[in-house]
Amino acid sequence: MDVIITPTAEEASLVAARHFEVEIRQNPAAVLGLATGSTPLRLYRALIDARLDWARIRTFNLDEYLGLGPGHLQSYHHFMWENLFNHVNIRRENVSIPDGLAQNVSASCSAYEGAIRAAGGIDVQLLGIGSDGHIGFNEPSSSLASRTRIKTLTEKTRRDNARFFGSIEEVPMHVITMGIGTILDARKVVLLATGEGKADAVAGAVEGPLMAMNPASALQMHRRAVLVLDEAAASRLRHADYYRWVDANRPEWQRV
Ligand code: PGA
Known about the structure:
The protein has 256 residues and is α/β, with parallel strands linked by helices. It has eight helices and ten strands. It has helices spanning 9-26, 41-49, 76-83, 105-118, 155-161, 180-184, 199-207, 240-248; strands at 2-6, 31-34, 58-61, 63-65, 95-96, 124-127, 149-152, 174-177, 188-193, 225-230. It has a seven-stranded parallel beta sheet. The two termini are 15 Å apart. The protein binds 2-phosphoglycolic acid.
């Protein structure tokens, strides 16, 4: 794992954004895996400001709430158009987000996996991390080999996300999410985490055992996982000084 620690959340977002900017410039037909939540907002703003060409870019989002249609203000469809897609020249047909209104959920999940395969797989996948270690909506105990499927949210995640809804009761119970196996298939993964609330989950993911109870720890099995953290999210890492030293002494060709 490549752990990059920056002084502020703002800088962490810009470093993570740079990985996507470089990918889009080098590979104008890249397949990107995208994420929602509070964390990627600054990153998306940076990508919009970079005025990149999205005409041939294809995207697959990690997850969606079951029961929420694209018009719902808290749907991840709405989030993505509002915060990124409406501001770049991406083609609507090149955007894929799990269908929150799917009638046949398992068929819809298989089709989503098939669409990722047909696109040639994901080049770079953006991830946040839940305070319980979830990536996508793969809650603790998710199979490390899981594929896109329905999941039931934990109470903790529903509480964490209640700030976007009127109350916890309004947060859907179920979601469709790419699986951990789906995420591990991406050729490169960039996880962005900021704030003290993520420090335990990050420490477990980087320095704890590989285990389903911290889904982000599965990234220990990935060949190209980059974790971009601010100081607060990195604050429980025992080997933070080592990661800083590695980053400071990176060979020039390895810098993004
Ligand atoms: P957040 O969510 O960015 O809103 O903290 C991250 C996540 O739950 O994956």
